[in-house]
Every structure is written in C-alpha cells, then in structure tokens.
Design goal:
alpha/beta, single chain, 8 helices, Rossmann fold, 193 residues, 13% strand
Amino acid sequence: MLVTLEGLDGCGKTTAWRSLKEHYPQAVFTKEPTDSWYGDAVRQSVDDPTADAVAELFLYCADHAAHISETIEPSLAAGQLVISDRYIDSRMAYQGATLADRIDYSVGYVRTVHDPFTIMPDLTIYLDIDVTTAVDRSGGESKFEREAFLADVRDVYERLIEEESDRFEVIDASQDQSTVQAAIIETIDAHLE
C-alpha cells in the first residue's frame, strides 16, 4: 500500500512522517523531493527566486519519475507498506498554483504530464491547517511559503480532496502533535485492515 502525507508547509507532515517510523518499522519511508541528484536539482530551483516555473515543474517531474522507478515500484512489488512525505498531490497543488497565470487549467496540465508514469496513492492523508498558521510555522522563507501563494495552494488541495474524496483523509493539524499522530496511525491502520 502506498500512503502519502500532504499539506501546506508548516502543517507538521514531516514531523509526523518521522514519528511514524517507530510505529511501522518494516515500512519503506521516502519523500519528495528525493535525496537523489534529481532532488538536489529541485531544491536548487526552490532556492532560486528567478527559476522558471515551467522548468521547475519538469525538474519535479524528473525527480518523481526516478522516485517511482527506483523506490515506489520495487517496494510495492515486494509487498511493502510505503509512506511518502509529499508526492504527486504536492506537485498538483504547488506547481498548479505557480503556473496558474501561465497555463490554462494548470492543475489539469500537471496531472496530464504525470498520468503516463505515476502510481496513484492508495491513501493520502492531508494535514489541514490555515494559511496564517502555515506561514508562522514554516517561517515564510521560501518562495513557496508566502501567505497569498499558500492560500492558492490550499484552494487546489481542497479541490483535489473534493474530486478524490475516496482517497483522501483530512486530519486537523492545528491539534497538538500527539493527537495528530494518533489520528494518522488510526487512519493508516484502518486502511491496512
């Protein structure tokens, strides 16, 4: 089973992902951007305020494709539980919002680019927080952590959740960390059964 954790920067997803390692010691834990040279290219682009948004999308795409072929597919084929900190929905939300002024129905475009090679998650846990909290928690330092931009990203996530409500589970991430963690574990365990 492929489980992905999604949400705005600052929602606590990476903290939750790290904590899940204790509860699911046999699972494969992975993330996007990956720790590969593809992921390094993505991080360089994120740190460059002048990076072209279309070029950046394809850097993310390359990282995602390599992630699938090198980690996701082999792990799923071996019958392992895979838990990823960010995955395709991040791309649709963040790059969809970034490209909205350049490409008509940018979210659909991002989805179309990924369709031929991606593996959709069995379960996506969306950690929901308001935009102001996200900016406060994340520090608002990167170009993807600005309040107006994150409002657009949150809107895209909400549309994705509405379109694929059978795949998404929404957890209120404004709660304390232990409550959020317990809700994530309960959700994953219910889907594993």
